[in-house]
Amino acid sequence: MNPISSAAAPDLRYPIGSAVLPDEPLDRGARTAYIAQIVLLADQVRAAVTGLTPTQLNTPYRPGGWTVRQVIHHLPDSHLNAYTRMRLALTEDVPTIRPYEEQLWAELPDVAATPPAVSLALLEALHIRWTILLRNLTEAQWQRTFYHPGSQRTFTLDQALVMYAWHGRHHLAHITELRQRQGW
């Protein structure tokens, strides 16, 4: 083994790796664990950004990546879409969801003008409402689906739960690893 090539450079875009979605339904314990990740996210992000200066908030987590501020505002944007997609799947037969241009949303003027605390409060309130829904789904409801035209794929609510629990951890790691690399 070549010791120089054995240590790959960290992938700053995917610090926790890519999401791995289940092919089979989740069991109750797995669902509970993923829901807990969603419950904890707002507090974890709030802790991760506590004490950051405006300059630090405007620092990209990687070259060519979003700033910490953009990541903070992206989380409730994305999770509000996820919550809506799940509600559509629960009330319609395999709805086709509407994708959105995440990059363009991150560049809208409210992202630069809104204090991060506003999006953190939105994320917290949204996650309270979302987890109440998730904790009350039946086994059959977890297998309801929606179609995502961007990925040309149908997702079960179990898969969506795993995806968005991963999504929160993924962006949290962008912030915490940047802080660690920068010594903040």
What does this structure look like?
With 184 residues, the protein is mainly α. It has one domain: dinb family like domain (Four Helix Bundle (Hemerythrin (Met), subunit A)). It is 60% helix and 4% strand. It has helices spanning 28-49, 54-57, 68-91, 102-106, 109-113, 116-135, 139-142, 157-182, and strands spanning 145-148, 153-156. A two-stranded antiparallel ribbon has the order 1-2. β1 (145-148) and β2 form a beta hairpin. The longest helix has 26 residues, at 157-182. Residues 1-6 have low confidence and may be disordered.
Oligomer: single chain
Remind me, CATH topology?
Four Helix Bundle (Hemerythrin (Met), subunit A)
Number of helices: 8
Question: What CATH architecture do you see?
Answer: Up-down Bundle
- Overall tally of domains: 1
Report on the biggest sheet: 2 strands, antiparallel
CATH top level class name: Mainly Alpha
Kindly state the percentage of residues in helix.
55-70%
Beta-strand fraction estimate: under 5%
* Low-pLDDT residue intervals, each spanning 5 or more residues: 1-6
Mean pLDDT: 95
Summarize the structure.
By secondary structure, the protein is mainly α.
Which terms summarize this structure?
disordered N terminus, 2 strands, 184 residues, 60% helix, globular, mainly alpha, Four Helix Bundle (Hemerythrin (Met), subunit A), two-stranded antiparallel ribbon
